[in-house]
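DM from R.C. (forwarded with permission)

"hey, sorry to bug you on a friday — could you get me a structure for this? deadline for the figure draft is monday and I only need the backbone to look sensible"
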Amino acid sequence: MSLPNKIFFTGVPGSRWSGIAQTIEQIPGFNTSDRSPSRTYVHNGFSGHQGAYFGRLMEFDARLDESYLNQAWSEPHGTKLIKSHDWAYSLDRLRLVFPKDWIVLVHRPDEASFDWWKHAGGFDINYPSYAAYQNDKIMQREIAWQNQAILKFANDNKLTWHLFTSEWIYKEFNYSISVDRSWPDIKVTILK
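My reply, with the result:
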């Protein structure tokens, strides 16, 4: 199976989407040259965030502009996993602008996501910046809105949700990776 140039990746804060992204990026052919010490956040023994994140008041805006997006990577070749919470708000447009690329969606219920985001550091997370969310009340509202947008896009495109497992990775990417733990409240789907 050949991978596309880009895979747009979205989930709400606290959905554990970053761990899923890091697992997927272990597949040969992924470009991880966006990783650096300044783009790494570790919490409670978890490698919480690695690589570039796109979004409001983050290092990079969530712009649907290929040359702008590519600035985050130091190497040009390989599949780029482009992560943004804000993709949830522009999934239909994203599909129109980049029809040959894939979209991976991660869903976890609102309250569980907010609780994990707080446990992971909340507004003290030093990369990426969550300053655009301002306070807990706004963060909870945004998590709910993003989840609604993700679910609507999946429903509109008749996507099927799955647990994030080794079997799902093999089915979608034709590559075997061991997934240490599947969370029963975390689901993934992909639009190719």
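R.C.: lifesaver. The chain has six helices and seven strands.
me: no worries. The domain at 6-191 is CATH 3.40.50 (Rossmann fold).
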